[in-house]
């Protein structure tokens, strides 16, 4: 189906969607937001997000309004200000994708008539519609749990639930990817005709990830397999989050010392500018971090490295790109759930090298 950009028709149902935790979690809410905006007539969708993810929320074509959640650090004054804003907005429904008592209390105090959230913990007491999901069992991808909540909300509102939207959940204007590749080619002196493999070695402080040395081993393995198949050597673009630049540059130096073409993505003008840069990737490699899920939302091919603990499986935190565009690796059965060194990098390098051959470097229209 064709996804429609957000409308500014104020006469349509006014929805508030809350996903106010980490970057990756927010990106996995975009399929649910796309679902809400696929209704005819499309509702007006506002989101409540922390200041950190707000720049990306403003880029989302399925969002009409971005409200900033001051969080617990906002104190009583912050809660009062936010409550006043919610009262004034006169929302018809609240959809909380990740429920906390503070947000449940705010929605109840704001008098939002329909309040829907997962039936988890005592925060559910503030909601008058609760959906049992048992996410801790990790039986479905996170983005699918979010989609199911959006569909349940539409049903409660008496709106026809649309066919599920398909990737990309962040569709970019034509020419955006080409412009980003031209920008990076100029900055790093890269050959635009070669495949570009982006690698994000950082963890954002939350995800279990490979070590820098293990990433170097993976890169060299991919290079060797492409060379053996007489395929062009890729250019590697290393990306880094705040505070991760030094480690990423150490990996760059290690790779350059091995004769690999590798550069460090220059600093960007905010999170939204960084995110757009990822559209230039022919393949994006990372642990289960926010940048991996940005690339997935853009429907770029991805290769993710995950732990195998029940709450953080490759299935639960699957990227939301097309199935043919994603690879996932985790410790084998019998290994420790966080034992990332047990992942077979030889096999991973072979799969990544083979996966790369399926995708053109030039921009195509979805």
Automatic annotation (TrEMBL):
- Give the Pfam families listed for this entry: Glyco_transf_9
UniProt-listed Gene3D superfamilies: Glycogen Phosphorylase B (3.40.50.2000)
Q: Which UniProt keywords apply?
A: Glycosyltransferase, Transferase
Q: Which Gene Ontology molecular-function terms are recorded?
A: ADP-heptose-lipopolysaccharide heptosyltransferase activity
Transferase listed as a keyword: yes
**Which superkingdom does the taxonomy of this entry point to?**
Bacteria
GO terms for biological process, alphabetical: lipopolysaccharide core region biosynthetic process
Q: List the SUPFAM superfamilies.
A: UDP-Glycosyltransferase/glycogen phosphorylase (SSF53756)
Q: Name one GO cellular component term.
A: cytosol
Classification via InterPro entries? Glyco_trans_9, LPS_LOS_Heptosyltrfase
- Would the keyword Acetylation be found if you checked this record's keyword annotation? no
Kindly indicate where the leader peptide sits in this chain.
Answer: none
Which named protein is this?
ADP-heptose:LPS heptosyltransferase
């Amino acid at each position: 189906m064709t996804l429609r950009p957000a409308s500014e028709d104020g006469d349509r149902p006014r929805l508030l969607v809350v996903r106010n935790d980490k970057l990756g979690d927010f990106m996995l809410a975009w399929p649910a937001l796309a679902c809400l905006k696929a209704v005819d007539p499309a509702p007006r969708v506002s989101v409540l997000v922390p200041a950190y993810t707000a720049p990306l929320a403003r880029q989302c074509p399925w969002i009409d309004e971005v409200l900033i959640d001051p969080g617990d650090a906002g104190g009583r004054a912050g809660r009062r200000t936010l409550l006043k804003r919610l009262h004034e907005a006169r929302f018809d429904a609240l959809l909380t994708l990740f429920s906390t008592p503070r947000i449940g209390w705010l929605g109840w105090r704001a008098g939002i008539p329909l309040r829907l959230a997962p039936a988890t913990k005592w925060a559910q007491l503030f909601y008058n519609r609760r959906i049992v999901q048992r996410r801790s069992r990790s039986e479905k991808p996170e983005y699918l749990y979010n989609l199911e909540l959006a569909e349940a909300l539409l049903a409660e509102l008496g709106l026809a639930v649309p066919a599920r939207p398909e990737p990309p959940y962040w569709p970019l204007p034509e020419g955006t990817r080409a412009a980003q590749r031209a920008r990076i080619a100029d900055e790093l002196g890269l050959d635009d005709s070669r495949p570009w493999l982006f690698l994000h070695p950082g963890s954002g402080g939350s995800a279990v990830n490979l070590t820098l040395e293990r990433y170097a081993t993976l890169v060299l393995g991919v290079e060797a397999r492409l060379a053996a198949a007489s395929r062009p050597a890729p250019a590697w673009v290393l990306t880094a989050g705040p505070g991760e630049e030094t480690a990423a540059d150490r990996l760059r130096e290690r790779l350059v010392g091995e004769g690999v073409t590798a550069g460090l993505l220059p600093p960007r003008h905010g999170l939204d500018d960084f995110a757009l840069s990822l559209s230039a990737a022919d393949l994006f490699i990372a642990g289960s971090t926010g940048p991996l899920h940005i690339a997935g939302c853009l429907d770029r091919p991805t290769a993710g490295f995950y732990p195998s603990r029940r709450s953080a499986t490759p299935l639960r935190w699957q990227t939301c790109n097309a199935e043919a565009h994603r690879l996932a690796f985790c410790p084998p059965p019998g290994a420790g759930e966080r034992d990332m060194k047990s992942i077979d990098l030889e096999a991973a390098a072979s799969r990544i090298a083979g996966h790369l051959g399926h995708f053109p470097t030039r921009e195509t229209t979805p």
